[in-house]
Design brief:
Radius of gyration: 17 Å
Number of helices: 11
Distance between the termini: 33 Å
Bound molecules: zinc ion
Strand order of the largest sheet: 1-2-6-5
Largest sheet: 4 strands, mixed
Strand content: 5-15%
Number of domains: 1
Order of helices and strands: EHHHHEEEEEHHHHHHH
């Protein structure tokens, strides 16, 4: 159990998009947009993503009506409601840190979805589209995160994923997101720094998450356990470039990194978590992406 059973999550900015079909046509002239989208993926090798695969429909898709996600108890019982509830917590935190930042929402889809960045299928994994300022997530990704990639499957491993994507929305507001377009790959690249900052932002939220409240001032989350943090770390490790490259290509090639290593992703998450201060997440100006300890 993560959310307080009686917390009100009905204000969560989450909607349902897309619906079923895969194999959406991608219109002409979307090259740059598709690239921008790929760069912002949570993890994974773009070559693998664009090569397709993963076209099968997820099993046991629940397709909960998000209107029915009303309480923390719902969030503890159902992954879609958990995402909606996590949005309440993320918005509460980031509204305090950056009152001027515009709102975002998460769009939960299955199969495929039309976005301001073009068409996407579930194969691309969770992503943030800077052009429409929305987070897109097919929760069937969590099966892959746990099964194929090796995260522990705890609720907080899923919440970390959404918090990371929310971090990209924050970066869209601060301007940091630009760095990933200007310097797209390599171990110290802008792209990697942007991704590690999003991990650090996820950690900063986690460090404050138990203080986030619903509209009535009720705490949303139970105090985080050590296991919750280990769940988040297991997800951060699972989507490290070195871990994924080892699986996909059988060797690690840092010159093609876009997200940072497992150790770096865990390190920056922990920096944010332990400081509880998003201001410590200045990865873009760090001398090295390995400087997560100070
Ligand atoms: Zn990302």
């Amino acid at each position: 159990m993560t959310f307080r059973e009686n917390a009100n999550i009905s204000t969560g900015r989450a909607s349902r998009g897309g619906g079923g079909g895969t194999g959406l046509a991608v219109g002409g002239g979307l090259g740059a947009l598709v690239l921008a989208l790929v760069v912002l993926l949570l993890g994974g090798d773009p070559g693998q993503v664009l090569g397709g695969g993963q076209s099968s429909s997820p099993v046991a898709q629940e397709n909960t009506d998000l209107q029915e996600c009303r309480s923390g108890a719902d969030a503890n019982a159902d992954v879609d409601c958990r995402m909606k509830a996590t949005m309440v917590s993320l918005e509460d935190y980031w509204t305090q840190v950056l009152p001027d930042a515009p709102a975002t929402e998460s769009v939960l889809f299955s199969g495929g979805v039309e976005t301001g960045c073009g068409s996407a299928t579930s194969a691309v994994g969770p992503f943030y589209c800077p052009l429409d300022s929305r987070i897109y997530l097919d929760t069937s990704f969590f099966n892959q995160l746990e099964g194929q990639l090796g995260a522990d499957g705890g609720a907080f491993s899923q919440m970390y994923v959404l918090a990371h994507e929310y971090g990209h929305h924050v970066q869209n507001h601060t301007g940091a997101l630009q760095a990933s377009r200007q310097d797209t790959q390599g171990p110290e690249s802008g792209a990697v720094r942007v991704e590690l900052q999003a991990d650090c932002f996820a950690g900063a939220w986690a460090g404050n998450a138990t203080a986030t409240t619903d509209d009535a001032g009720t705490a949303l989350l139970e105090p985080l356990s050590r296991q919750d943090i280990e769940s988040a770390l297991s997800a951060a490790a699972a989507v490290g470039d070195d871990s994924i490259q080892e699986q996909v290509q059988g060797e690690v090639t840092p010159h093609t990194w876009t997200h940072g290593s497992s150790e770096q992703r865990m390190g920056w998450f922990l920096r944010g978590y332990e400081s509880g201060d998003a201001g410590t997440c200045d990865v873009l100006n760090a001398a090295s992406v390995d400087d997560f300890n100070g």
